[in-house]
Amino acid sequence: MADGASRLPVWTLVAALSCAALACGADPYHRTSSATMPDGGGGHPFGGTPMGNGDPFGTGGDTATGGVTGAGGATTTGGVTGAGGTTTATGGVTGTGGATNAGTGGAVATPPCPGCKVVVQYTCLSDAPDQATFVLEILNQGQQVFLTQDLTVRYWYTDDPTKPQELDCDDARLGCPNIKSKFVVVNRAKANVFAELSFPPGAVDTMGTTGRIQLRLRNMDYTQIDQTDDYSQDCADRSAHANMKVTAYLKGTLVGGVEPP
User: What is the pLDDT of residues 235-258, one digit of tens each?
Assistant: First the structure.
C-alpha cells in the first residue's frame, strides 16, 4: 500500500475481520429458523417440547423424569414364573406307577382255555389181530371257542418189540392230509408209547366238533398186534362214547381225559 494511503487503526481491522468470521448478527449456534424446517409441534425444529426454556444446552428436565423406564412393575411382579406350582406339584401320573406294580403275573398260571371242556368221543370199529380201527371225534362241551391249531390228541398203547408202527387216516372232515401224527416213546406202567395227532388252523365253537376222524393203528408190516394191553383201546363198547383214556391238550396242557399211570 502506498505510503500516502490512509491507514485504518489496527483495532478497527481486527474487529472487521472478527465480525466477518462470526457473521455478525447471525445465530452463533447456526440454528435454522422454523420457517425453513418442518415443525413437529410447539414450534421446535425437531418437534415436541424444547429441551428446556430455550437454552441451547437445555435443563434436561424431560430426560431426568424417566418415569416409564423406572416403573418396571410388570417385570418385578414375576407372578407367572414364580408360581411354578403346576409343574412341580402335579407329577401325579409319574408317581402312581400302578400299572407297573400291579403284579399281573398270574397269567402264567391261567389255563390255556378257561371255560373249555374237551371230550374225545371214541368208536371201536375193529379189534382185529392185525390192526386197531377206531374213530375219534373231539367235542367242545365248554363255554369258549378253542383253536384247532392249539389242539393235540394222544392215543396211548403198548407197542410190540422191534415193530415200527403206522397210523393211517382213512377219512376226516378236516381232511386226512391236514392231520399230522407222530409217535412218542414214554415209560408208563400202562403204556410205553403214544400216537399224537395235530390239526390244521381252525376253530371249534361251543358245543361244536372237529367231525369224525377214522384211523387205523398197525405194524408197518401188518403182522399181528396185541391190543389187550393198549391203554386207550376200548372195544367193550362198540358205540360212540366218551373215552377218558384218549387224552386231549390245548397248547400242551391237558384239558380232557386221564393219562396212564
Answer: 999 999 999 999 999 999 999 999
